[in-house]
Amino acid sequence: MSERVGIEVRATGLRRAHRGRVVLEVPSLSLPAGQVTAVLGPSGAGKSTLLGIVGLLERPDAGTVEFDGRLVGTRDRDARLRTSAVFQRPFLFKGTVGANVAYGLRLRGVVASERERRVAGALERVGLAGWEQRSALTLSGGEAQRVALARALVLEPQILLLDEPLASLDPVLKHRVAREFAELFANTRSTVLYVTHDQDEAMTVAGRVVVMRDGHVMSEGVTADVMGLAADEWSARFLGVEPAARGTVAESDNGLVRVACDGVDLYAVSDLPPGTAVLVGVRPEDVMLFDSGADLPASSARNRIVMRVVDLEPRGGVVRLALQAGGVRFAATVSRASALDLALARDSRVLALIKATAVRVRQDRATA
User: Fold this and answer.
1) 40: Cα separation from own chain's centroid
2) How many CB atoms lie within 10 A of CB 196?
3) Helix (H, G, I), strand (E, B) or coil at 231
4) Overall domain count for the chain
5) Which listed residue, 59, 82, 162, 304, has the most CB atoms within 10 A of its CB?
């Protein structure tokens, strides 16, 4: 399938109110061409409103949207033909899978032979090669959503919009389909905007993340940095991490830095020079815990810190911990069995091992 190159999307000064309440206020937002950006936030954060405005499905009360530097709007037919969308419900109609996927092509007047070729290619891309003659009414939830994605991809969009596409699937199926989507997105040239409230889903599919709350963008950037470095207390709670620690780069050597953080030295991968004030964070799943007196052999984990358990909270099959050493607090998760083996309790001590590559570091603009 021939595929057009994705385009850069830039939004400026977006504002939207509903029944007298402001539901979206975004001063600026950019979607890099050809990249996958996830918009993450709780219900009511304004995610779908943002997608609707950026995708030219609805008008903002104020602000502009540009495609590759050109102002566009809801009445711009050429711009709208550059986009396609997938929503939470697949909205398949009676008939065959092939007819559903070909629907948009028929509306655009694509000849039958070209439709057949493009439909076959789109179904192959989503793992449903040869399904053209199957009834759309017999599909499982995951299959139906993949058909909906094929229907969007067959239009060869430069901008692909997905609004909670996996929200109606059960957790096991959601995880599998998310991995399939991620693999497909890695091989597409479209600019992708992916709305979700699920953090695991966002981390699986997207290279960039925008975190929203009450219509505002709280943080945005590379997925690993945003998810590991909470911009504020609310973001820390929402992302399941502790607020970022503040420190100063004490040493820098060939891409490895030592950060002094209020009595604790942390090693991280960064090119920031000595003297730079930074924020430091770690995802809970990147913290490995051992008995505080464990004599461990040398490993690739540069950070070995004895930390105190300041809080612990059972969550299903795991236990979430808040750990502290000096002025540094990290979150960690362990299985219930591991929590029992380590005799974890408030004020107990554990040895935390963290690889330098897992420590996220960003310049602290507040002190720059």
Assistant:
1) 6
2) 25
3) coil
4) 2
5) 162
Tens digits of per-residue pLDDT, 84-111? 999 988 899 999 999 999 999 999 999 9
10 Å CB burial of residue 272 (0-12, 13-18, 19+) is middle
159-163 sheet: strands from edge to edge: 83-86, 159-163, 191-196, 36-40, 208-213, 216-222
CB 34 within 8 A of CB 186: no
Quick check: is 4 in a domain? no
Cα 200 off chain centre by: 8
189 & 170 share domain = yes
- First-to-final CA distance of the chain: 48
User: Are residues 204 and 252 located together in one domain of the fold?
Assistant: no
Q: Which helix (H) or strand (E) holds 321?
A: strand 318-325
State which of 204, 227, 250 marks the end of a domain.
227
Q: Is the dihedral of CA 101, 81, 223, 217 positive or negative?
A: negative
Phi, psi of 317 (to 5 degrees): -85, 0
Do 336 and 219 share a structural domain?
no
Q: Are residues 198 and 264 in the same domain?
A: no
Query: For residues 95 and 145, what is the distance between their CA atoms, to the nearest angstrom?
Result: 16
Place of tokens 């974890």: 344
Angle at Cα 318 formed by Cα 322 and Cα 346, nearest 5°? 35
311 neighbors 318 (Cβ within 8 angstroms): no
Which amino acid would we find at residue 113?
S
Task: Write out the two tokens for 119.
Answer: 């439909």
Kindly state the tokens that stand for 86.
């997938």
- Looking at the DSSP assignment, which residues form a beta bridge with residue 279? 246, 362
One-letter amino acid at 277 equals A
Write down which residue in 177, 192, 227 finishes a domain: 227
Q: pTM for this structure?
A: 0.88
Mean pLDDT, rounded, for 162-191: 90
pLDDT score of 366: 77
- Rounded to whole angstroms, the Cα distance separating 362 from 261 reads 13
Q: Is the predicted pLDDT of residue 171 greater than 90, yes or no?
A: no
CATH code, 278: 2.40.50.100
SS3 call for 109: coil
Mean pLDDT of 272-292: 95
Higher pLDDT, 306 or 5: 306
- Is the model's pLDDT at 1 over the cut of 80? no
